[in-house]
Amino acid sequence: MGGGSQAKEHPWEYLLASACAASINYPLWRASAVGQSGFRVSSISIAGFGKIPPTISTYLYAFAPPYKGMLATILGMTWARAAIFWGSDYGKDILKRM
């Protein structure tokens, strides 16, 4: 934040930025969770592209339905990121005043 702005003046901006980051990163998080669980995604065939290798299929699978749990995951990641970054900046402001 530029100038004399303080974190406590911008809680909604922290929440919005965190929601954008969580939404963008959700497919990557899902692909990572699939890989860590040991689940193997078989090759996917896409019209016009042919057969996609299994290494890339995991990421394509992350963008595909079902979207069960997506909202809860994104809300959790949003809340966590906003709390961490807002709290960090707010705490910095408090320490500067001491």
Description:
This protein is mainly alpha-helical and 98 residues long. 66% of the residues lie in helices and 6% in strands. The protein is built from three helices and two strands; from the N terminus they run H-E-E-H-H. It has a two-stranded antiparallel sheet with strand order 1-2. A hairpin with a 3-residue loop joins strand 1 and strand 2. Helix 1 crosses helix 2 and helix 1 packs across helix 3. The two termini are 20 Å apart. The model has no long low-confidence stretch (mean pLDDT 84).
Share of residues in strands = 5-15%
Task: Identify the strand order in the major beta sheet.
Answer: 1-2
With helices defined by DSSP (H or I, 4 residues minimum), what is the helix count?
A: 3
Radius of gyration: 19 Å
Helix content: 55-70%
Q: What's the overall geometry? A: elongated
Average of pLDDT: 84
Number of strands: 2
Low-confidence segments: none
Main beta sheet, described?
Answer: 2 strands, antiparallel
What is the CA–CA distance across the termini? 20 Å
User: Which sequence of SSEs, written as H and E, runs from N to C?
Assistant: HEEHH
Based on helices, strands and strand pairing, what is the structural class?
mainly alpha
